[in-house]
Structures are given as C-alpha cells and as structure tokens.
Amino acid sequence: MNDSAYRKDNTEENKQETLKLKPEILNYIKRKKQVTMTDIYHDLQCGDIPMYLAIHDLVKEKKIEGDSPYEAKKGNHDLYTYTIPKSSDLKKIAHFIKNIASALKPTESGNLFNPESEKGFVKSKYWGTWNRLLGKLNNGSYVEINLTPINAGSKADAIWDPPQKREVEPIIIRTHRTEGNTIKKEIPKDIEDQMIKNIGPALTKRLLTEDFTSKIDWNLLHSSMRGGGIPLNSVLKKS
Question: DSSP assignment of 124-138, as one string?
Fold first, then answer.
C-alpha cells in the first residue's frame, strides 16, 4: 500500500466528503453488481480524492471486494472493478448506511452559500473535467457546474458522444471538498470552442456566465446532494 499517498489525501478537509460518499458508493455497487472506478466517478460525479478514500475504506471494512486505489499501479487503478462480497449480510450493510447517514445531519449555517468565496473555472487534475466554480458553502464545500465530460482534451470529439454528453446537459450541479485544483479566472478558448461545437452557443453562454447562485435553494441543494452531480432544475427556488 502507498501509505504516504494515503496520509497525504486523508486530511480533515476530505474526511467529511469521504464519509458522505461511502454509503453512496456502496449503494451504487449494490445496484450495478460490478463497476469500475471510472463508472463510479462518471455516474456519481464525485471528487476524485474522496472517492479514493471512500473506496479504500470500504475495501478494508470488507463492504466491497476489489483493490484499494492506494494499492493499484499508477495509471491503471481507474479500471479496477468492485463488487459486493457474496457472503455479505445485507442487514449489516443497511445498518452501516443508516449509521453513516445519522452522522451527517447538516447544520443550517453550513448549508448556506458564501457570496464572498472565490469563483472561476477549474480543471480536475485526474479526470480532465472542466467545471465552473460558483463559490463555496459556509462548510467549505465547493459548488460547481459541469462544463465538459471526462477527459476533455486530445480526443475532444469522442468524449462528447452520447452518453457522455449527459454529464453536461441538462445543467448539472455538484458539491465536493476536494482541494488542490487550480482556479482560473477565464475558461481556455479551446475548451469554450469545444462546448460551442458540441452543445451550442446558447447553452455554452448560460453555463459560463449566467447568475445561478441567486436562483438556488441552498438548503435544498445541501439535502439533495449524495456525492454526485444532480440537475440544477431540481434545486432551484420555487417561483
């Protein structure tokens, strides 16, 4: 096991997001029977480091079968597969999920958006996704809008094929606690061009410039988040 990488990632800032992700990943694997790490990231739209930590914990707790990301060879662990152990007691798993959920009862002050927090555009170092950072909640969680599917870059046309496009349209919002991604004031021109080509100029303009923060019900957003992205329309204020 790569102990130094685990210790580096297992910070206090990442622990709360990891705690939230564990039951979500467990339920996801139960539904799908067998998944890869790429499947988990693609469908749950979670932060990469909390995902690694959550999978590591679930493997060590024998809730799932597979290899810890901290024991996989570099450049290959996104293809590792995970299943539910055949001998698992489903009642014990349900009890585990219930205990995790009870530990995550949110405080209203932590749910609220901090309008003074930093905004901009960020790229995931691992997954290659570009997102628009709307800002932070008072509990430190980043609030982002998806701008591109996974691995936007050299194979730009291929990554926009269905069903990858569903990562961007309808408009997807998510929160996470992953640190370390560089925040830029402007989106790179080639990424904006990709967006215009694949989702059109109107939606691209909305994603890059629209004031979403004034339209969001922040308590509803917080209660709706389960470690993955969700449609923005589902957390808007009722008119």
Answer: -TTT--EEEEEEEET
DSSP SS3 for 92: helix
* Amino acid symbol at 100: I
Question: 174 with 231: CB under 8 angstroms?
Answer: no
> 201: pLDDT confidence band, cut at 50, 70 and 90?
very high
Domain spans, the chain: 3-102, 108-235
Cβ atoms of 228 and 46 closer than 8 Å: yes
User: What six digits make up the tokens of 186?
Assistant: 């402007």
Can you tell me which residue has the tokens 């932590």? Answer: 110
CATH 3.30.70 fits 3-102, yes or no: no
pLDDT, one tens digit per residue, over 108-129 is 555 688 888 899 999 887 677 8
